[in-house]
Design goal:
429 residues, alpha/beta, Lyase, Ornithine Decarboxylase, Chain A, domain 1, 2 domains, 9-stranded mixed β-sheet, 14 helices, 23 strands
């Protein structure tokens, strides 16, 4: 997979990478390495492509967990998305940006009292309830605050999604309410005070790359909503996200061109959606931002060990953990040189742990050397904030956004000195 396969906004020259026409070398001269760089035009293009291929009945809510930088969130909400959050911190970000509470939903299996209190006070569109115990807590907190809180019931269905990287529904799960428990939980939702039931939430899988898998999941969710609707009008149906992006050779981009007609045909078969004017919510995260980002590190050393070649960089999995977690390399390239003769390399970082590899067994130029720039693409989602930046006490990288022919630092680096200043030694020691 070449950089041009990932996004037409990335163009590699013999010694540089142009991101929407802006030189990566110029960005690195200003901010150094390691570094995250995101491209606003890629995000806009991804959103517009999705919006154009979905019926207007579907609202797009950005799953902020994918990349919660406030500049990225502002870019997407300006385009027209709502937001799916999963913490009090993400709610605070929404509040700071002035996002309409009617365009916020809150998911997560272990919401604290502080989490729920903030959501209740903001009056968001829906808290997606994952258990009967959580439902009771929301009712109690809402009573105490003199508010009525809107909820959806997150259900753990029986079905799986074909072609998904990870299924999050079916079997025993920490997520959601098992479908066989629905009658008891539904009865409680209708009985408990200060609760308004909007509908249901189903998040079945992540990493969906096949359009048939996406459509099949959507049909299963609508069918499940119809069952619930026989007991209570379903005013909202949140079908989760899970739209994938290709990370490696052989994986094909999720094709959604023209899919809106098939979705519309599906919706037309279910009368309750029209009768209730049901709000249908889709929560993409990775699909919108993943391909916009590249993680840049610089080669410090090269070495050979018992027949294998290694490139050691100033970055590592403390700043991009996903390849180690899933044991899958991102599309990774030497951005400083393009030669015909290549070899297979393992790209390791600065950490004293054997898991610290951004990529294993990838093709790089044979003349890769100290000072070269290594780019790990598809790092716009689950990159900076999914990682473990305090491990081994390195400075945290900047985040930079390329937009409208210029670039801006959207997160300043946190230095080790700043981290140390927050630590305390008891007087007795």
């Amino acid at each position: 997979m070449k950089p041009l396969d990932i996004s037409t906004s990335f163009q590699q020259t013999d010694s540089d990478l142009l991101i929407s026409g802006v030189s990566l070398i110029k960005i690195i001269d200003d901010f150094g390495t390691p570094l995250y760089v995101y491209d606003a035009e890629t995000i806009r293009r991804r959103y517009n492509h999705l919006r154009e291929n979905l019926p207007p009945e579907i609202d797009i809510f950005y799953a902020m967990k994918a990349n919660p930088n406030k500049a990225i969130v502002r870019l997407l909400t300006n385009l027209g998305t709502g937001v799916e959050v999963a913490s009090r911190g993400e709610l605070l970000l929404c509040e700071e940006l002035g996002i309409d509470p009617d365009n916020i939903v809150f998911a997560g299996p272990s919401k604290t009292i502080d989490d729920l209190t903030k959501a209740i006070d903001l009056g968001i569109y829906s808290i997606n309830v994952e258990s009967l115990q959580e439902l009771r807590r929301i009712s109690r907190l809402s009573q105490q605050r003199g508010k009525t809180t809107s909820i959806e019931l997150r259900l753990n269905p029986e079905f799986h999604v074909d072609g998904a990287v990870v299924n999050m529904g079916g079997g025993s799960q920490k997520f959601g309410i098992d479908i066989e428990m629905l009658p008891a939980v539904l009865e409680a939702a209708l009985r408990l005070p200060n609760i308004h039931l909007n509908g249901i939430h189903v998040f079945s899988a992540t990493g969906i790359l096949g359009s048939e898998g996406f459509l099949g999941n959507l049909e299963n969710c609508v069918g499940l909503a119809e069952r619930v609707n026989s007991h209570y009008p379903v005013l909202s149906l949140d079908v989760g996200g899970g739209l994938g992006i290709p990370y490696k050779d052989g994986e094909v981009e999720l094709s959604i061109s023209g899919i809106n007609e098939r979705i519309q045909s599906l919706f037309d078969r279910y009368k309750f959606l029209r009768d209730n004017n049901t709000r249908v919510i889709l929560e993409p995260g990775r699909y919108l931002v993943g391909q916009s980002g590249v993680y840049i590190s610089r080669v410090e050393y090269t070495k050979k060990s018992r027949g294998e070649d290694y490139v050691l960089t100033d970055g590592g999995v403390h700043q991009l953990l996903r390849p180690a977690l899933l044991r899958t390399s991102h599309p990774t390239f030497n951005l400083s040189r393009r030669t015909e003769e290549t070899g297979r390399y393992n790209i390791g970082g600065t950490l004293c742990t054997p898991i610290d590899f951004i990529a294993r067994g990838i093709e790089l130029p044979r003349d890769t050397q100290e000072g070269d720039l290594i780019g790990a693409f598809c790092s716009g989602a689950y990159g900076y904030t999914e990682s473990m930046p305090l491990f081994l006490s390195h400075d945290m990288p900047s985040e930079v956004l390329v937009h409208d022919g210029r670039y801006s630092e959207i997160r300043q680096p946190t230095t080790v000195e700043e981290v140390l200043r927050k630590q305390r030694i008891p007087r007795e020691l």
